[in-house]
Write a structure and sequence with these properties.
By secondary structure, the protein is an alpha/beta fold. The protein has 13 helices and twelve strands. α1 packs antiparallel against α2 and α5 packs parallel to α6. Bound molecules: pyridoxal-5'-phosphate.
Length: about 400
């Protein structure tokens, strides 16, 4: 059976946006359903006697993938919830500074703006050079924003709009030398690239399972370094103890947020097994090769140089390519009008955005995508970009 049979897109749809909303393969959807069935069959037994140890097992399995201890992970709906927990927990004082690159996700900036407004702390945004030439230059540009008031750096592992892999290892090293905490926004990195949180040494790591891991929608996690675990604030106040009567643990406050179905979290190991069965490295190589092909084809079409070097150091399974600016005003963060005809006329789902004066098309390449689909995209782009 071809691997693409694991997905069931409607006829005629070319789905090139796994990076925003990555649907799960059939086997993961079935695993999620099976967990829900278990809960529905005997909820008392499930919640009181099974759920907590099953969540431990799932966290342990996830920890093996990302080089972390399962005891240092919290399951939450998505990276947004994880980031909110961090923003509600880091104790900021008036005048403290939180440092960002200019490529952070819009919702993440809103979360921190609120946290800084509440505490009279300050947001500092550093402009990173584009086109990119070296990791040293990127790190230096970010660290140039550090002052003695910098308490925290919030940085994407892989950026949303520009799809760039940031040198987070070097950022963590530089931050540690200055005693600054680092929170990594990592939903795109999970499964797309290797993550080793023990080696990385960050303070917090936020991620979503529904992107490159292809775990169910509603499955994310927050990693918290041991030194911060007791200071963490739950997003929802509930019982704060073990429902199964186990000894108190820091995760308790975050596990029982009132009654809910934990099936998305419990199906995470099935998503890991799916990718490992296929071969994690094969998955990464294959999807990167397709992204590289998309990059070449779009350059041929537009004649515009990509702003990042052609290397797995800088991009994985997703590439953001510049398009000619056209006549319309470059509205920051606004979806481009071209996205609508691509969908309505050609059945192609792909994001195109305006960002800092660039018009970027972001191509996500997953296991169900093919070169034929990239060719289809380029043909559609060609006819849509041509003056009529
Ligand atoms: C860099 C980045 N951070 C955070 C998020 C938020 O992810 P979610 O909607 O799964 O919470 C996204 C979503 O695309 C993202 O690209």
């Amino acid at each position: 059976m071809p691997i693409s049979d694991e997905w069931s897109f409607p006829e005629g749809v070319t789905y090139l946006n796994h990076g925003s909303f990555g649907p799960s393969p059939r086997c993961v959807r079935e695993a999620r359903q099976a967990w829900t069935e278990k809960l529905e069959r005997q909820p008392m037994d499930f919640f009181l006697r099974q759920m907590e140890s099953e969540l431990d097992n799932a966290a342990e399995r996830l920890g093996q993938l990302i080089g972390a201890d399962g005891n240092d992970l919290l399951f939450c709906d998505n990276a947004t919830v994880a980031m909110n927990i961090v923003a509600d927990s880091v104790a900021l004082q008036p005048g403290d500074e939180v440092l960002f690159t200019n490529q952070e996700y819009g919702a993440v900036m809103r979360i921190w703006r609120r946290a800084c407004d509440r505490t009279q702390a300050k947001i500092v945004v550093q402009l990173l050079p584009r086109p990119i030439t070296s990791a040293e230059e990127q790190v230096a540009a970010l660290m140039a924003g550090v002052t003695e008031r910098t308490k925290l750096i919030v940085v994407s592992h892989i950026t949303s709009q520009t799809a760039v892999i940031f040198p987070v290892e070097a950022i963590c090293r530089e931050a540690a030398k200055r005693g600054i905490k680092v929170c990594i926004d990592g939903p795109h990195a999970l499964a797309m690239i290797d993550i080793n949180l023990r080696k990385l040494g960050c303070d917090f790591y936020c991620a979503s399972g529904h992107k490159w891991l292809s775990a169910p929608f509603g499955s994310g996690f927050l990693y918290v370094a041991k030194r911060h675990q007791q200071k963490l604030s739950p997003p929802v106040m509930s019982w704060g103890g073990s429902v199964g009567g186990r000894p108190a643990h820091w995760q308790d406050e975050f596990r029982w947020l009132g009654t809910r179905d934990p099936a998305p979290f419990l199906a995470i190991p099935s998503a890991i097994e799916f990718l490992e069965r296929f071969g994690l490295e094969t998955f990464r190589e294959q999807t990167h090769e397709l992204a590289k092909y998309a990059r070449q084809r779009i350059v041929e079409l537009t004649g515009l140089e990509p702003p990042i070097p052609d290397s797995r150091e800088w991009y994985g399974s997703m590439i953001a390519m510049p398009l000619p600016l056209g006549d319309g005003p470059p509205n920051q963060g606004i979806r481009d009008q071209l996205q609508t005809p691509l969908w309505e006329k050609f059945g192609i789902e792909i994001p195109i955005i305006h960002w800092h004066g660039e018009r970027l098309i972001r191509v996500s390449c997953y296991l169900y995508n093919t070169r034929v689909q990239i060719d289809r995209l380029c043909n559609a782009l060609q006819s849509s970009l041509e003056p009529t």
